[in-house]
Amino acid sequence: MVSSSRLLLGALLVAAVAGGIAGTNYGQARYDRVFSFGDSLTDTGNSAILPATAGGPFTNPPYGETYFKRPNGRASDGRLVIDFIVESLRLPQPEPYLAGSTADDFRHGVNFAVGGATALDMDFLQSKGITSFVPVFLSNQTTWFNGVLQLLASARNKQRSLMASSLFHFGEIGFNDYSFALLNVLSNDTVSLAESLVPHVVGAIRSALLDVIAAGARTMVVAGMIPMGCEPELLALLPGVAADYYDRASGCITPFNQVAQLHNRELNRMLCQLRRAHPRTSIHYGDLYHPVTAIVSSPTKYGFGGMPLAACCGGGGGPYNFNFTFFCGTPLSSACADPSGSVSWDGIHYTEAANRFVAHAMLRGL
Ligand SMILES: *[C@@H]1O[C@H](CO)[C@@H](O)[C@H](O)[C@H]1NC(C)=O
Ligand SMILES: *[C@@H]1O[C@H](CO)[C@@H](O)[C@H](O)[C@H]1NC(C)=O
Ligand SMILES: *[C@@H]1O[C@H](CO)[C@@H](O)[C@H](O)[C@H]1NC(C)=O
């Protein structure tokens, strides 16, 4: 018994190391399932079930119209980055955590991401004067993961082999923390408030990564922050007058993008430390910032239309077409005729076309 499980473990190690040497591209390795974490950019159905968010706009048409032909809990007209990654790795679709309960539901992978989730705990954000709305934090998602792991395999060696054959996808997390800070009406310096969160958000991501590494994770992808200053919601709600507020080339809000870049620098520094401390775990950075910035700055070059800062679905017109009165999925909203020409679907989340572009850039660049 002992020797056969050692052999098995040895074979897995060889496979894992070979996979790591074969390329920096995690898309070339083989996995049996994916476990994923994050917020609405990665949520494939949890927030539609969570009592605090059930019945939200994402559960109404025209969400899902392009690919699923019906609302399906995803905050897009179609597929998300995680969907394209799962498809290209030919993996089964992970079960939204709140949609399942048994080992059978979860054995092909689980998506723990929840729309509106923050990296930081609500109490911590509150202590900074920041109100969040969805009572799910990254720490909840890793707690849920540990429960699922126990359910799938109680013996330690079974857990190890399950972990070794799984891909861990940490989707973007922290956007909600930062945007709640940037939109905080009680602060007179919201950019500094958002910046002050960066080490804490990166620390929360580090704790989550250490949690799954301790459980035996061997391959993980950790997405960085999106260019927050290019979000139609923030552009519409937070206009500025300072000469250097808007980036001349893209029209995005420079100080908000600087917060995102600070996050990405600190995240990458933390990932370097983790790689040194855990050389047998392959840790990839998933760059969302540059692919999104590329299409926003040169939309027609990449097949998008000429108004990359306008939401497709929503209302209110103008360069951003964003106003909460007309939020996508509510009665007064309407959607553009061809979402594939837009970067932003609803002013906060991307279209399927943008998600496909980003996912392919991620799979190529890793
Ligand atoms: C998230 O974790 C906190 C404790 O950190 C807990 O109080 C809360 O109930 C959890 N939320 C969910 C939805 O499980
Ligand atoms: C912000 O408010 C604090 C007091 O609450 C004040 O000391 C500070 O000068 C203000 N900063 C700006 C940029 O107005
Ligand atoms: C949003 O739309 C409402 C209704 O038309 C309007 O009263 C309000 O001024 C708009 N808000 C902004 C920020 O444009």
Structural class from helices and strands?
alpha/beta
The protein's oligomeric status is single chain
Q: In order across it, which strands form the biggest sheet?
A: 2-3-1-4-5-6
Mean pLDDT: 92
Bound molecules: 2-acetamido-2-deoxy-beta-D-glucopyranose
Number of helices: 12
- Tell me the CATH superfamily: SGNH hydrolase
Molecular structure report:
By secondary structure, the protein is α/β, with parallel strands linked by helices. The protein has a single domain (2-18, 29-364), classed as 3-Layer(aba) Sandwich (Rossmann fold). The chain is 41% helix and 8% strand. The protein contains twelve helices and eight strands. It has helices at 2-22, 81-88, 103-106, 122-127, 138-152, 156-164, 175-182, 190-214, 232-237, 254-277, 289-297, 352-365; strands spanning 33-37, 95-96, 109-111, 166-170, 219-223, 282-286, 313-314, 334-335. The strands form two sheets. Strands 2-3-1-4-5-6 form a six-stranded parallel β-sheet, with helices on both faces. A two-stranded antiparallel sheet has the order 7-8. α3 links the parallel β2 and β3 (109-111). α1 (2-22) runs parallel beside α6 (156-164). The longest helix has 25 residues, at 190-214. The chain is globular and about 60 Å long. The two termini are 38 Å apart. Residues 1-24 have low confidence and may be disordered. It binds 2-acetamido-2-deoxy-beta-D-glucopyranose (3 copies). One 2-acetamido-2-deoxy-beta-D-glucopyranose is lined by residues 121, 135-136, 139-140. One 2-acetamido-2-deoxy-beta-D-glucopyranose binds at residues 188-189. This is GDSL esterase/lipase. GO terms for molecular function: hydrolase activity, acting on ester bonds. Belongs to the 'GDSL' lipolytic enzyme family. Keywords: Glycoprotein, Hydrolase, Signal. Residues 1-23 form the signal peptide.
